[in-house]
Each structure stands twice: as structure tokens, then as C-alpha cells.
Amino acid sequence: IGGFPKAFAQSLTCYYCPPNRPSLCSNSQVICSSLCASVREVIYAGSIQDLGQKGCATKELCYNGSVNFGVSRATTNIQCCSSNLCNNYPAGGPNGKKCYTCNNKDCLATLSCSGNEDHCITANDDVGGQKVTLKGCATKTICDGKASKMSSLLGLERAVTFKCCKGELCNNAKRIGQSMFLLLAALLYIVLFN
């Protein structure tokens, strides 16, 4: 996500924490015009990249989206608020919902969803001529936003086809090919390094 403007007109005090500058995050504050924001972007794929920032926001920047495939997860959580020093909270934890996820053999494992992930998702992509199926949890925002938001969240330039459902374990379990592990590795490489 592009950086938030540091300040607007003087009317609201917000916590300020620029990306990749933790030394400035302890109790720094900034004056904003209408909204404060707390941003957390987390990508789990082999290793964890946890990027956070706080500051001013406009209404258009307030967005929450998450997709979780078990072996990889991408979360963008931008929480906006309109009172002084209200932007001091992280993204949510497990919420009790479960969906099917895929491993290197099949899609029979279950995954605990987190935060506002209230839908199960099945995503399909073509990696190097091989069809890849991923299953997991997603937010309503991702499901309603169709392919553009999910592709953006995963860092892909092309649209990934997917379908969502609401209900416990509604993204049916299904066996997958033996090459799934290699295909997941290729997809994660694309997500992380493109």
C-alpha cells in the first residue's frame, strides 16, 4: 500500500508510525484532517513479512482484505477511525471458522480462519501451464471485490479465478495431483518476488 500522507489540516491527533522505521513508532503523533489509520500487511509464505504503519488516511484508503491458503497467507488490514489517538490496534486473531486447505497431497486438511475472514475460498491459477488449486479463508471484501482485489493482494498482475462460500468447511475437500507442492512453491515465488 502506498504511504499515507503525513498530515492534512489540523483537526485530529493520530499515532504516527512510518513503514520500516520502528524507532519512530513508540509514541509519535501527527495531526490529520479527518481520519486516523492503523495498517498491517502480513504475508506468510515460508517466512513472515509483517509491515505496519500508522498515520492519516482518506476514506478511499480504508480497506480490509485477507486470503489464507494455509501454506501462504496475505492480509491487508487498514482500520480507520475518527477520534483522537484511535489508531492503536493490530489485525485480529483466530475467529472460530474453519475451511478446507490444500497441502502437497490433497485438500483434506482444515484451516482456522482469522480476524474478519468469514468466507471459504477456492482459487485456481495457471502456473507454468499447470493448473493450481488453493483453498482457504477469505474476507467478504475479497469475495465481493472479485479477482482484481485478490490478485492485487497476492501481488499478481493477472486475475486469479476463484469462488467463495459462506459456511463451515463449505469449500469441499478434494484430492489434488502429486505435483501440487511444486506448483504451490512456484505460485508463492510469483507472489513474493514479482
From TrEMBL:
Identify the keywords attached in UniProt to this record, alphabetized: Membrane, Secreted, Transmembrane, Transmembrane helix
Chief location: secreted
Intracellular or extracellular location(s): Secreted
The question of whether rRNA-binding is a record keyword is answered with no
Residue ranges of coiled coil: none
Hey, what's the signal peptide range on this chain? none
The membrane-spanning stretches of this chain are 176-193
Q: Which GO terms describe its cellular component?
A: extracellular region
Keyword Aminoacyl-tRNA synthetase part of the UniProt annotation: no
Q: Which residues form the UPAR/Ly6 domain?
A: 12-96, 98-184
Q: Which SMART domains does this entry report, sorted A to Z? A: LU
Protein's name in the database: UPAR/Ly6 domain-containing protein
This chain's source organism reads Denticeps clupeoides (denticle herring)
